[in-house]
Design goal:
Number of strands: 12
Number of helices: 10
Low-confidence stretches: none
Shape: globular
Order of helices and strands: EHEHEEHEEHEHEHEHEEHEHH
Distance between the termini: 40 Å
Mean pLDDT: 95
Strand order of the largest sheet: 2-1-3-5-6-4
Radius of gyration: 19 Å
Largest sheet: 6 strands, mixed
Bound molecules: 2'-monophosphoadenosine-5'-diphosphate
Oligomer: single chain
Helix content: 25-40%
Length: 275
């Protein structure tokens, strides 16, 4: 029987996940479909029970339900516990299990770059996204990770939790030249005219500057980094890899991520540069 998967969110119309997963199902000859479902917060519990009743094989969760889905699930993987947020649910025939593939998705995207794991990494931000990425970097054996954040207390807390160190924004700006990988995880840059989360004045030429945002493809932060002759990495890779990890959990198959990054980049109006 045809299997079905879904993504639930509010709003959901612009999600690229159905396009991506349907293409992967087709490529691998899997008889399944992936549908976007608009679920408002007050309907979340009903929606989950309905999906169960209708035999959903797995699903993704996007804003604003990533935390509120947790009480309905049977079990959480460590990745979801760390972030206190779930973006992927698997079903093993008995239990609905919550995972969070965002952090590992980012690290896979980063690892596709020509970098080594002993480079000095700076993570800007200490929210949910930064937490997932900082822990995923540690799991992937990045040895030198520093966190900086507008609210310093949160940077210290995250650094203590994941075994890294923290700097104030001022300290990080002054020491920016020491870092060869800089990761922007805050929501700054979604709006066009926002100030940068950190000044790139002292960034080293040739360092890798990444942003987790993928729409726009080039945030003001990445534009500024390009002007400083840094290599830039936008959030398309993270988006594709978080989906690929979910797809692997559901089907046991590793989909073609590089081709998907190209397709999504072009869909968002960008030019794909083969690495
Ligand atoms: P998410 O789950 O998307 O990471 P979050 O948990 O609300 O969202 O975290 C948002 C992050 O963006 C935080 O690091 C936040 O900094 P504070 O801890 O100081 O709030 C950061 N952030 C949001 N707006 C910002 C701004 N205008 N300048 C700098 N940092 C900002």
């Amino acid at each position: 029987m045809k299997k079905w998967y879904a993504v639930i969110g509010d709003p959901i119309a612009h999600s690229l996940s159905p396009f991506m997963h349907d293409l992967w199902f087709e490529e691998h000859g899997i008889d399944a479909t992936y549908i976007p479902i608009h679920v408002q917060p007050f309907e979340l519990e009903n929606a989950f029970h309905s999906m169960k009743a209708l035999g959903v094989s797995g699903f993704n969760i996007t804003l604003p339900h990533k935390q509120s889905i947790i009480p309905f699930l049977d079990k959480l993987d460590e990745t979801a516990v760390i972030m206190n947020a779930v973006n992927t649910v698997t079903y093993n025939g008995r239990q609905y299990i919550g995972w969070n593939t965002d952090g590992d998705g980012f690290v896979r995207s980063l690892s596709a770059q020509p970098i080594t794991r002993n480079e000095k990494v700076l993570v800007i931000g200490a929210g949910g996204a930064a937490r997932g990425i900082a822990f995923a970097l540690k799991r992937a054996d990045f040895t030198d990770v520093t966190i900086t954040n507008r609210t310093h207390r949160r940077a210290v807390e995250l650094a203590n939790d994941c075994g890294s160190s923290a700097l104030t924004l001022k300290e990080a700006e002054a020491a920016l030249g020491d870092f060869s990988i800089i990761i922007q995880t805050t929501s700054v840059g979604l709006a066009k005219d926002e100030a940068l989360p950190i000044s790139l004045e002292r960034v080293s030429t040739g360092s890798l500057v990444a942003d987790i945002i993928y729409n726009p493809l080039e945030t003001p932060f990445l534009k500024a980094a390009k002007e400083k002759n840094c290599t830039i990495l936008n959030g398309v890779g993270m988006f594709v890899y978080q989906g690929a990890i979910a797809f692997e959990k559901w089907t046991g198959i590793q989909p073609d991520t590089e081709k998907m990054i190209q397709i999504i980049t072009e869909k968002l109006g960008g030019n794909y540069v083969n690495r």
